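Chapter review: from sequence to fold.
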Amino acid sequence: MINFIFFSFLILPVETLPSPVINRNSFEVISNSRYSFHSGFTANLSDQVLSNILWAMSRAPQIGSYREIYVAKPNNLYLYNPENHALVLHLSGNRRSNSSSAFEIGVATERYEEAGFLIQLGLLSATSFWDSLSNAVSCPMQSATNYANNNWSPYHPIRMVNIHGFAQRRGIDTTNIAISSDSSLPRPVIYQNDTFEILINNLGFDTLFLPTPLSLSKVSQILWAGYGVTPHMTANNRRGLTVPSAIANYYLTRRIYLVNEYGVYRYHNRLPPGTNLTTADHRIELIVNEDRRSALRNAIPRIPQTAPVYIVISVGDTSSNYQLLEAGFVGIQMLLQAKSLNLAGSLTLPLSPNERSLIREALSLPSSDYPVIIFSGGERISKIEERKPKKANTFRKIKIYDFLGRKILENNKPLKKGIYFILYQKETSCSFRKIVIK
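The token string follows.
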């Protein structure tokens, strides 16, 4: 549907999008199943898929001073307006870099790490439509990014472009290959009770943490979600991970560190010595045998001071856009996993050169590793709220889903006992809300 926005004497066509829908796949399942399609796709994707992807990307926490999401469709190039969930014309005509793509989505942000948040959420949202076969496939491409910066006239530099298309190959995969070779970490759980679209609503950083230790199983789950191995093999025959990497180089290998009450550990997703990218593992290696959390808190006072667990995400080169994007992929994955486990989670970034040096010193990290994001995790502190009067369990012009994502109501009808998720649309936004009918 085409509407118009009026700015003084300028009239901009607006393409409205359907409301996002809830798919039945969990965050863990789609993280385990996702892989990149570099070619072999067609342009046959619906606006519903585009709607979900854009909505998911807009859920990412913003850390910079600006954010722009561009969408190249066969007819025109648009700017996405998250306030009214619509596309505003930016340039007329076909501006796609690949004629086989259904649409291409470019992200302009101040920091590459934040662009990584959005790109990863877009990839996961596309994968959430899969069943036994893939359908909405995608891949972040540097060639498309170069093309966009040269041909899209963006207001700010585009950090990365996701290409999306349609292809039917291997779909949802629940095979769990994250097995620790030394039993230092329990096996992560692929089946969880969350639903991706519901999970990402109101995604943000927590500030209140219980200081009680996290169980090793929860720590294991967060590490796997961030940078764990998955069943697929890449085009260059390397074992895939929960996040993409340019040419499957996996720049963060051996550069992710766990900090808890027992010490400082290096996370490994490859068999010893940890550098063979064709192998799979899920283990931690002790590098400092004492509690360094106080030293880290003193070095970086702005991290949550009561969090029992910190994970330091490092790169080998802070001038590399690929490495900073990859760090963003990992950070948002850890935040999502914390929320799925009903934990408090936060990401601290960007880190200054001085802060990086202080972190290395506090944790005795190698001088060749440059911390760029700190994940903080712990049990939630429940908020105490005044009980509100009960309201009648009837609703108007909304959609209601059960916990499995099945749509059950669209009109005024009383609800039975159970857990429900309401999709409701305001004039300027759409959102989900969880309700419990007793």
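Two observations follow directly from the output. The first strand starts at residue 2 and ends at 7. The first helix runs from residue 27 to 33.
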